[in-house]
Write a structure and sequence with these properties.
The complex is a heterodimer of chains A (345) and B (277). With 345 residues, chain A is an alpha+beta fold. Chain A has helices at residues 41-49, 91-100, 110-123, 139-152, 169-186, 197-203, 221-226, 231-236; strands at 3-12, 15-25, 30-34, 56-61, 64-65, 76-79, 157-161, 189-194, 206-211, 214-219, 240-248, 251-254, 257-259, 269-276, 280-284, 290-300, 303-310, 316-322, 332-337, 341-344. Chain A contains eight helices and 20 strands. Chain B has 277 residues and is mainly α. Classes of the chains: A alpha+beta (345), B mainly alpha (277). The A-B interface holds A 49-51, 70-78, 80, 82, 84-89, 97-98, 100-102, 133-135, 146, 149-150, 152-153 and B 168, 170-171, 173-181, 184, 188-189, 192-193, 195, 274-276.
Chain lengths: 345, 277
């Protein structure tokens, strides 16, 4: 199912949740809406689901206007952050709900409903919990049941609002992988909202980065990570070193000192220099572009993270260096960015 | 080892609070009720049975319990609608309506009785048009019913209101996105979630109506066998110095009320379990 979003605008009082948003979602995509809280990502999702109505703009699903239909007529599966399971119903009845409330003329027979629920519980690997009640389940199990419930109505689109937001880190990781493989299996066009960039990059085929009601960038996880379109995206996705610089006549200055990096095609004015932590090469004192003193070194995983106080400024930055490199607190080092980006501030 | 055998509790003071609870409940509730039973023992079983099964007593009990139950049912339905409006919608004067719900709590019942009687008397604002239609309210069982509804409504509203407020709106959204009609959302999702609170409200409104005296006696007319409530019959027996007779009726009321409240409590427990409370 293709979803088209055109000029969507939504205000809550004086707060602009969505500001003229355009987006096309292709059939079978697994799309992440990524952004900080208040960026409008959940509002966009809720409008597509029919749980919220825009002030202006259009949403079409497969060429058909969606806004003229209510939530129940859109055949959209929605998964809530806090599961929103029916507490007085067993797991089985929760999943069966969407089938039982269908108008009589298209409602399945009891046997068919039972078979379908069984199939869905198998799909989410929780068939052994059919007779339990939601409050007897763990958070991860509840969310999988919520997903099975949403899939019961054979939705054209699956929408997930921060689906793993309420879960602990380990369960979250497991469910991410599980969601990916599930999507591979059922191939339904899916959109999920998250503020967790790692989650978005790991799970989605395509990521839409939002801020303040606008789309800042759309692209594959690799694209948004390697080629961020602007300062916001660079700062939001991946951990970056961020330095305020001044661009004047093809030269980049940090404070008073000029930096030996190319500034071709940059607009003069206050700007921001972004370097990924692992893209900062640490060399002997005097080499490189920036000078600094190592304050602290912590080692975990494949890297060692050094906190370096830059000379001639009162700013400290964190860089990731290979573990085999000798780094001790007190060392004076030269730093050279392998890759960097400068955006107008 | 022996020192650690005494179980430590993070909430200390169990002994003290339990002791106070028992003492207080005994003083306030159990001892007076026991006195009631002791007083009844002055009667032989035959005498007791004679009093209890007399036509006048049975009529009074039937009127009290029957009308109280009907009134509680009406309050359940209407109270739920009031709660729905108060919780779900924002309208001018909502706070005032919310406060008005408490009036029957606070008003001296005699005042309520006088007011209702004046309103429903044959020449009253509501009584006149109703009697033109052939419906007599004041000084009939219908009047008792009206008074019982009046004093019972806040119990339903105040029990159900916080529960509805806490009901997650996402549950309704989930139901809607699964294609449920408004009716299905209401009957399959919202009402089952409210059931424990509805039952509590029903029980409280019922208990209040059974025990109501002040407002009812003004409007009831108090005709024996027709519009005489059991509490009034008790008062009449007391004023005739037939204390044992009075306590016999009271014991029956007590036992029946307790049985009904107990039953509703069980129902409520069951519903609560179902609702995943």
């Amino acid at each position: 199912m293709t979803i088209e979003v055109r000029n969507l605008t939504k205000q809550f009082g004086s707060f602009v949740a969505l500001d003229d948003v355009d987006l096309t979602i292709g059939d079978g995509e697994l799309l992440a809406l990524l952004g900080p809280s208040g960026s409008g990502k959940t509002t966009l999702l809720r409008i597509i689901a029919g749980l919220e109505w825009p002030d202006a703009g259009e949403v079409t699903i497969d060429g058909e206007s969606a806004l003229s239909r209510g939530a129940g007529e859109r055949h959209v599966g929605f998964v809530f952050q806090h599961y929103a399971l029916f507490r007085h119903m067993s797991v089985f009845e929760n999943v069966a709900f969407g089938l039982r409330v269908q108008p009589r003329r298209i409602r399945k027979s009891e046997a068919a409903i039972r078979a379908r629920v069984k199939e869905l519980l198998d799909l989410v690997q929780l068939d052994w919990l059919a007779d339990r009640y939601p409050n007897q389940l763990s958070g991860g199990q509840r969310q999988r049941i919520a997903l099975a419930r949403a899939l019961a109505i054979e939705p054209r689109i699956l929408l997930l609002d921060e689906p793993f937001g309420a879960l602990d880190a380990k369960v979250r990781k497991e469910l991410r992988h599980w969601l990916r493989s599930l999507h591979k299996e059922i191939r339904v066009t899916s959109i999920f909202v998250t503020h967790d960039q790692e989650e978005a990059l790991e799970v989605a085929n395509r990521v839409v980065v939002m801020d303040k009601g606008r789309i800042e960038q759309t692209g594959t996880p690799t694209e948004v990570y390697d080629h961020p379109a602007n300062a916001f995206v660079h700062g939001f996705i991946g951990e970056s070193i961020e330095l305020p610089v001044e661009v004047t006549d093809g030269q980049v200055r940090l404070g008073d000192s000029p930096l030996a990096i190319a500034a071709d095609g940059l607009v003069s004015g206050p700007s921001k220099l972004f370097v990924r932590r692992h893209d900062m090469q640490v060399g002997p004192s005097g080499s490189g572009v920036l000078q600094g003193a190592v304050i602290r070194v912590r080692t975990f995983g494949p890297v060692q993270r050094a906190e370096v106080a830059l000379t001639g400024g009162n700013k400290a930055i964190e860089i990731d260096a290979p573990r085999d490199q000798e780094l001790r607190p007190g060392d004076i080092v030269g730093l050279k960015p392998r890759h960097y980006r400068i955006f107008a501030a | 080892m022996s020192a650690s055998i005494r179980r430590r509790n993070t909430l200390p003071g169990f002994g003290l609070s339990m002791g106070l609870t028992l003492t207080w409940l005994s003083l306030i509730v159990l001892i007076p009720l026991a006195g009631l039973f002791v007083k009844t023992l002055e009667l032989s079983p035959d005498q007791f049975w004679g009093i209890v099964s007399s036509r006048r007593t049975l009529s009074a009990l039937k009127i009290s319990f029957g009308l109280a139950f009907l009134a509680a049912l009406v309050n359940l339905v209407m109270g739920t609608i009031v709660v729905w409006a108060l919780v779900r919608y924002r309208f001018p004067g909502r706070k005032i309506f919310d406060a008005i719900v408490d009036v029957p709590f606070a008003l001296p019942t005699a005042v309520a009785g006088v007011a209702l009687t004046a309103l429903f008397a044959e020449k009253g604002w509501l009584g006149a048009p109703l009697s033109a239609l052939g419906i007599k309210v004041a000084f009939t069982p219908v009047g008792i019913f009206v008074a019982m509804i009046f004093i019972g409504i806040p119990f339903v509203v105040r029990t159900v209101q916080p529960v509805l407020q806490d009901l997650d709106p996402e549950i309704e959204e989930a139901a809607a996105s699964l294609g449920a009609s408004r009716w299905h959302t209401m009957s399959k999702v919202i009402l089952p979630g409210l059931t424990p609170a509805l039952l509590t409200g029903l029980a409280l409104a019922f208990a209040r109506a059974v025990g109501e005296y002040g407002s009812v006696i003004f409007i009831a007319g108090n005709l024996p066998n027709v519009s005489e409530i059991a509490p009034l019959l008790i008062v009449i027996r007391l004023s005739e110095f037939r204390y044992a007779d009075a306590t016999a009726i009271a014991v029956v009321m007590l036992v029946v009320s307790f049985a009904i409240i107990f039953l509703v409590n069980r129902l409520q427990r069951w519903a609560q379990m179902r609702a995943g409370g």
